[in-house]
Amino acid sequence: MIFVTLGTQDKSFVRLLEAIQKQIDLGNIKQRVIVQAGYTKFQSNDMEIFDLVSMDDFNKYMDECDLLITHGGVGCILDGLKRNKKIVAAARLKEYGEHTNNHQLQIIETFDNNGYILKLDDFDELDKVLSKAKKFKPNKFISNNDNFVNKIKDYIDNN
């Protein structure tokens, strides 16, 4: 199963769902596709699309999916990484009215450069990224939170 999560941005991300639908139509995606679309309105006879799902359902879909396709939100990416999921991430872009700036490009680039995810830059090449995902072995994500918290504690204790 593929779980697609577009976050809860108040802007549409139809571009990604159109790319996924195209791959379904071409026969490149045959598995079940579940979408948490947020504010994105999209009609499909092939995908199960929900505006929002409960946290229980979200966690269930994350646990069960073979592939996570997501926007460049850190929360969604980290949720997938913590579950050792294969992740394809696509940035919401300002020029398409999908976000207020292009910071998701930097987020995705960083995770991609570290071997954690696969980035989708060109939506017309989703088929190539999906093919690459079949053999992709993401690097094990190691959080830096403990180090960060310790630095803050040390700073507070010493100042």
Would you kindly provide a written description of the structure presented here, covering whatever features stand out?
This protein has about 160 residues and is an alpha/beta fold. The chain contains 6 helices and 6 strands; from the N terminus they run βαββαβαβαβαα.
Rounded mean pLDDT is 93
* Stretches with pLDDT under 50, minimum 5 residues: none
Read across the widest sheet, the strand sequence of neighbours is: 3-2-1-4-5-6
Taking the sheet with the most strands, its summary is: 6 strands, parallel
Question: Which percent range describes the beta-strand content?
Answer: 5-15%
Distance between the termini: 51 Å
Can you count the helices? 6
- Please, what is the oligomeric state? single chain
**Secondary-structure-derived class:** alpha/beta
Q: In percent, how helical is the residue content?
A: 40-55%
H-E order = EHEEHEHEHEHH
Shape: globular
Radius of gyration: 17 Å
- List how many beta strands DSSP finds: 6
List the helices and strands and how they pair.
Elements: E1 2-5, H1 14-25, E2 33-36, E3 48-50, H2 55-64, E4 67-71, H3 74-82, E5 86-90, H4 103-113, E6 118-119, H5 126-135, H6 145-158
Parallel strand pairs: 1-2, 1-4, 2-3, 4-5, 5-6
